[in-house]
Amino acid sequence: MTLRSVFRRWMDHYFSDEEAVILLVVLVLGFTAVIFFGRMLAPFLIAMVVAFLLQGPVSWMERRRMPRLLAVFVVFLAFIGVLLALAFILLPLIWNQLVGLVQEAPRMFASGQQLLDDLQERYPNLVTPDQMQNWIDVAGREVTQLGQRALTLSLASLGNVLTLIVYLILVPILVFFMLKDRDRLVGFTVSLLPQRRELMTRVWEEMDDQIANYVRGKFIEIIIVGTAAFFTFAYFGLPYTALLAVVVGLSVLVPYIGAAVTTLPVAAVAGFHFGLTDEFLYVLVAYGVLQALDGNVLSPVLFSEAVNIHPVSIILAILFFGGIWGFWGVFFAIPLATLLKALVYAWPRGIKHRHRQEAAETPAES
């Protein structure tokens, strides 16, 4: 059997259905457009995600017999209020705390160096002077690189102020029209698809509710975890409370990895503020309880209808899509992995599959 014959049998097995070929072309064109024109289409993509999130409240109001246009106005005004609150209250607070943390970094580095000196004096056989010096050199290089990155980011952000202003104006306008003319836009998109789209319909029906539940549930999880972390850190009097709370809230975007990585800044700030005291231990215990409640109580409640995907598949999806699309790739890693799983299960399997489908659709003779 030649390689050509093997390839031909493989093509007949998976792509003998015309709709499968059309769906493959649509997926390739969609992914290609996002990969190569993602930066250009970023306002449209962000608006589409936000409109997808806000469609839930609009539909909820419609089910209670509120006119759709009025429901769109109410939800959109609430969205604008939240956006303004973030822009004028939360972001300045986080920025001030970030500036304070950067300014305090040298003192924190000196405290860490003193801690290593004390550790070397207490355990001279465990920690040698050479090891301690290597740790100090590595930490110094990391602090220097962090400062350089922060400076580069600040200088680069000065040139992107105009872009940010455009986003703040353009994205809400797109969100409003996507909500207001949802049926018209969906009808136009469907009209571009072929008449025969049973496979596309089957994949979409399997994905629609799951993606909606995941995206909305993830935003709710970010808000709940971030708020709980804020009040927890504020109760213990931890500095940079808002900044740490935002970091902890966003850490839920990366399952398994986010909670472990976020432990480092929380432990570092608590250690430098309290030292190796009981308060330091209490903060770590409270943070561990918060992560345990999120993983064992909150996530199962919010994502009870999500597709069960193996942790290895989730990590691979995060690495792959995050490497391609950055933040949004990490955020949509699980929905995209769910899409691939749905495609694998819904994809037609050649001539035998088509014969079985036609036999199932043919009514039995009386």
Describe this structure as you would to a colleague.
By secondary structure, the chain is mainly α. The protein starts with a helix and ends in a 5-residue tail after the last helix. Mean pLDDT is 76; it is low at 154-159. The chain is 84% helix and 0% strand. The chain has helices at 3-15, 18-37, 42-63, 68-122, 129-159, 161-180, 182-191, 198-235, 241-250, 257-274, 278-302, 311-325, 327-331, 333-346, 350-361.
Features:
single chain; mainly alpha
Query: What's the gyration radius in Å?
Result: 26 Å
| End-to-end separation | 45 Å
What class would the helix/strand composition place it in? mainly alpha
Helix share of residues? over 70%
Count of DSSP-assigned helices: 15
Mean pLDDT level:
76
Shape: globular
Largest sheet, strands/sense/barrel: none
- Into which percentage range does the β-strand content fall? under 5%
Q: Unreliable runs, pLDDT <50, ≥5 residues?
A: 154-159
Question: Which H/E pattern describes the elements?
Answer: HHHHHHHHHHHHHHH
State the total count of DSSP E strands. Answer: 0
